Amino acid sequence: MRTWGWLAAVIDVVLIVVFALIGRSSHGEANTPLTLWTTAYPFLAGWAIAYVTSGAWSRPLRFWPTGVVAWILTVFVGMAIRVATGQGVVDGNPLPISFVIVATIVLGVFLLGWRAIARGILRLRARSRDGAHGTRGTASGV
After folding, report:
1. pTM as predicted
2. What is the pLDDT of residues 4-23, one digit of tens each?
3. In principle, which of 21, 34, 63, 65 could form an S-S bond with 69, CB 3.0–4.6 Å?
C-alpha cells in the first residue's frame, strides 16, 4: 500500500497543478514556472494539510476521509491563502463566487474522480482474478 500512497500523492499534486494551468490558460495568463507556482501553491498547501490530517498515505484511494478531506481542505485553504495574499481580486471582490464554484467543482472531479476510476479498475481486476481462481474477494484496504 505504500506504493499507492506515494502514487496517490503524485496524482493529486499533478492534478492540482493541472487545475492551476487550466485556470491560467483560460484567462490568457502566462504559464511560466513562477506564475504557475503562484497560482498553485495555495491549493497545494491546502492539499498538504489534508494529506497529513486525513492519514491519506494509509488509505489513499478511499473517498472518506481521504478524498473528501483532500478536496474540501484543498479548496478552503487555497481560497483562504488567495484572499490573504490578494490573489485574484476582481472589481474589488477578493473571491468571486464564480471562481469558488468552478474551483470546488473542478477540484472535486479531479481529486475524487481519479480515485473512483482507480477503485473501479482494482475491483474489476479483483473480480477477474477471483473468477480465474474460483474464489470471491474484494479490493479492500485501498
Report:
1. 0.85
2. 788 999 999 999 999 999 99
3. 65
